[in-house]
Amino acid sequence: MDLHILEHRVRVLSVARRGLWLYTHPLVKLLFLPQRCRCKFFSLTETPEDYTIMLDEEGFKELPPSEFMQVADSTWLVLAVVSNGRASSGCQATGVTKIAKSVIAPLAEHHVSVLMLSTYQTDFVLVREKDLPVVIHTLAGEFDIYKEENGESVPVDRDDVSNGFLKAKPAASPTVHPVQSPQNRFCIVTVAPDTLPAIATVLIDVLFYSHSPPKEAGPGSQDLDTFTFFAFSLIEGYISIVMDAETQKRFPSDLLLTSSTEELWRMVRIGGQPLGFDECGIVAQIAEPLATVDISAYYISTFNFDHALV
């Protein structure tokens, strides 16, 4: 297997629910007209607390600063595991399970904080740009590592990034975070890019207009029977949507593509309080035990909490 460091330099931010009105126009542009802003990496996840947005620098230019937006300090790089010349794809795959032991656990042991973004097609590991030397030294023994430059995959020489590498310190005992499991059942779907306009009205309604006047939700304040979660990503032309089964009924069923089993998923939400970006090993704590017993899992990090779908 190969590890590819993609060209995207990603910013991670949170938009408060009460401030979403200010971002509706640029978000619609990013959702439906990415060619207008040359954005190739865009993900929007709605949770009870806020909207988490991950997007490349071209997309980030579209979002005006405001009191409603928090932006993580770091710029993040995107890692993708490639097998037989192509990224793994489809819900038949095992999500983060397949990379838990080879990527996620070693990075946790070397104190590298990661964000995860699982999509219908593949799983992306986001690492801070400043941690790249440690990432390469940690994973070079397991993977051939390539960096994408101008659309070409260029081999990365481990010695080229020796500056700045620090030997791993003894691992501290990881914090044990509380978990919650809402009653919703979720589905992971994709749509063909040329059919996106056909679901535009429903998608806009679900994201921007379906809720009562927004109010800030504190951690754990929402009834877990009615947990709000909707994730949309448009990455290099591939679309992925995660939504609960009730929301799925609002979309034209003939346009949503699912795995052949059409299985539903339950969520485990990690964190009683916002997790922050500096803590390491959160993803590994969830992914490793599941990988050990071969349980498929998809994992989506947001600005405040982490979410595993099993």
Automatic annotation (TrEMBL):
CASTOR1 N-terminal domain mapped to chain residues: 9-68
GO MF entry, a single one: identical protein binding
InterPro entries: ACT-like_dom_sf, CASTOR1_ACT-like, CASTOR1_N, CASTOR_ACT_dom, CASTOR_fam, CASTOR_mTORC1
One GO cellular component term noted in the UniProt record for this chain: cytosol
Cleavable signal peptide: none
The keyword Translocase appears for this protein: no
Keyword entries, A-Z: Cytoplasm, Phosphoprotein, Ubl conjugation
Domain of life: Eukaryota
Domain Cytosolic arginine sensor for mTORC1 subunit 1/2 ACT-like stretches: 177-260
GO biological process, one term: negative regulation of TORC1 signaling
PANTHER family associated with the record: CHROMOSOME 1, WHOLE GENOME SHOTGUN SEQUENCE, CYTOSOLIC ARGININE SENSOR FOR MTORC1 SUBUNIT 1
Subunit structure: Forms homodimers and heterodimers with CASTOR2. Interacts with the GATOR2 complex which is composed of MIOS, SEC13, SEH1L, WDR24 and WDR59; the interaction is negatively regulated by arginine. Interacts with TM4SF5; the interaction is positively regulated by leucine and is negatively regulated by arginine.
Similarity comment: Belongs to the GATS family.
Function: Functions as an intracellular arginine sensor within the amino acid-sensing branch of the TORC1 signaling pathway. As a homodimer or a heterodimer with CASTOR2, binds and inhibits the GATOR subcomplex GATOR2 and thereby mTORC1. Binding of arginine to CASTOR1 allosterically disrupts the interaction of CASTOR1-containing dimers with GATOR2 which can in turn activate mTORC1 and the TORC1 signaling pathway.
Protein name listed in UniProt: Cytosolic arginine sensor for mTORC1 subunit 1
